[in-house]
């Protein structure tokens, strides 16, 4: 690499390359020579991971809604395990790109199916627990990744360490029941009866029985009574499809806004994560570790607030704060000398804090806005849009280094992240609050969701505050 006027001029090195090793003695860059005129391949490889996530989220989301959450989970693990194990042994970029694509698709399907399964297995009042506590394990995973990298120093062993444990998820096929909500929506009453009997045995109580021996008919009557009471409204005449969300202007607008939100949140989350290596203050390893550390208090704060002030206020507040942090970073990067660049690092970590909290509230709030009948598909499509943002983020970080003015290049990622946060903030203000309300079960019910009078909304939220206050 030869710098010319602050930019990078790239040419091949015919005599080969000698690499400087810091912690990783062997990685994809020196194994496949992603340097000089091949340096863009490193960014393309990262893009393939997110591209796989984009397609996998949609396709596997449809499979999850049609064939069940557990089927999708098992299929995803079956794809991820061999691809992840084979990934660090490849010798060509094309093979690496294919395996990255498959790993991205499978990992997204695995997370989305297990997340929806957990969300649907709990009482609506406890949805925040699987919705937000799950996000904390991202931080744990980042710490384990950093520790593995530091301790092993070889990306092959690191890849094996983070891939092989996924084999334990095969045990879920026997240990974890299918979502009762999914079974009820698809009127699989025989399986509902088996799950309830298994749950009763596990809890040491008598299983549900029927006076006339027709348990399935009793479950159908129970479902109809819940539907009449508005407690569990499930269509018994037709199956909803994701396209039904676009047959209503209200639902179409909400769906597109949700997709925009997913793209922006993932853009800034992965953008802040990847840009940690370009911060002028501190090493990339320290910055990565600090960025992982701030995620835990972000999720704890979100967990404490979503049932006190609502999902919408927390989410929009974090978007606005992220935009402010980006604006501050731009100002310092452009207007201050090298001695003050630590301020950019601090503001960037606050921005990562906001992005981590937004990941949690997005999974909770946006998932609750979709009806049960298409929730997994909706989450999959939303995750696909999220991958568009994630897909763009490495290019923003990578090509900002090519800008001739180093200060402007340092500020460019924050300009993009800040403007995107403001855009999502404006559109998300139009989405309804889900706090204190049962999630819609069908597309028809979703059409009327959020149209309650303001007095009714305030009453429900006040009841929620009293409920969680008494629990504390």
From TrEMBL:
SUPFAM superfamilies: MFS general substrate transporter (SSF103473)
Keyword RNA-binding: no
Keywords: Membrane, Transmembrane, Transmembrane helix
Keyword Transmembrane helix in annotation: yes
Membrane topology annotation: Multi-pass membrane protein
GO cellular component, one term: membrane
Subcellular location: Membrane
Name this polypeptide is given: Major facilitator superfamily (MFS) profile domain-containing protein
Source organism (scientific name): Elysia chlorotica
Lineage, top ranks: Eukaryota, Metazoa, Spiralia, Lophotrochozoa, Mollusca
């Amino acid at each position: 690499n030869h710098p010319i006027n602050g930019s990078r001029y790239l040419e091949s090195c015919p005599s080969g390359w000698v690499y400087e090793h810091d912690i990783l003695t062997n990685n994809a860059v020196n194994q496949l020579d992603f340097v000089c005129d091949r340096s863009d391949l490193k960014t393309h490889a990262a893009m393939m991971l997110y591209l796989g996530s984009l397609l996998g989220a949609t396709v596997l989301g449809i499979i999850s809604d049609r064939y069940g959450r557990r089927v999708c989970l098992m299929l995803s693990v079956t794809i991820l395990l061999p691809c992840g194990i084979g990934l660090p042994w490849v010798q060509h970029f094309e093979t690496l790109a294919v395996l990255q694509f498959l790993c991205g698709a499978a990992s997204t399907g695995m997370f989305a199916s297990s997340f929806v399964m957990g969300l649907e297995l709990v009482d609506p009042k406890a949805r925040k627990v699987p919705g937000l506590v799950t996000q904390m394990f991202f931080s744990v995973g980042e710490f384990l990744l950093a520790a593995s990298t530091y301790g092993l120093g070889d990306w092959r062993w690191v890849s094996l360490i983070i891939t092989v444990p996924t084999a334990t998820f095969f045990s879920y096929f026997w240990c974890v029941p299918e979502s009762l909500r999914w079974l009820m929506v698809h009127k699989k009453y025989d399986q509902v009866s088996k799950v309830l009997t298994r749950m009763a045995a596990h809890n040491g109580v008598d299983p549900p029985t029927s006076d006339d021996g027709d348990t399935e008919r009793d479950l159908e009557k129970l479902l109809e009574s819940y539907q009449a009471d508005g407690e569990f409204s499930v269509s018994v005449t037709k199956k909803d499809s994701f396209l039904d969300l676009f047959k209503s202007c209200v639902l179409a607008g909400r769906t597109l806004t949700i997709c925009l939100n997913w793209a922006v949140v993932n853009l800034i989350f992965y953008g802040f994560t990847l840009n940690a290596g370009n911060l002028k203050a501190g090493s990339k390893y320290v910055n990565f570790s600090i960025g992982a550390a701030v995620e835990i208090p972000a999720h704890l704060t979100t967990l404490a607030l979503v049932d006190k002030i609502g999902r919408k206020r927390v989410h929009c507040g974090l978007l606005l704060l992220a935009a402010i942090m980006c604006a501050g970073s731009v100002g310092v990067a452009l207007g201050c000398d090298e001695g003050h660049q630590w301020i950019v690092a601090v503001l960037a970590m606050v921005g990562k804090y906001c992005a981590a909290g937004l990941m949690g509230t997005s999974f909770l709030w946006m998932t609750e806005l979709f009806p049960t009948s298409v929730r997994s598909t909706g989450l999959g499509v939303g995750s696909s849009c999220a991958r568009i943002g994630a897909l763009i983020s490495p290019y923003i970080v990578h090509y900002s280094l090519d800008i001739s003015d180093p200060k402007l290049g340092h500020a460019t990622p924050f300009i993009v992240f800040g403007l995107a946060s403001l855009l999502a903030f404006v559109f998300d203000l139009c989405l309804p609050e889900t706090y204190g309300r049962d999630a819609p079960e069908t597309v028809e019910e979703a059409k009327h969701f959020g149209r309650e009078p303001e007095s009714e909304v305030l009453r429900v939220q006040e009841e929620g505050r009293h409920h969680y206050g008494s629990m504390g």
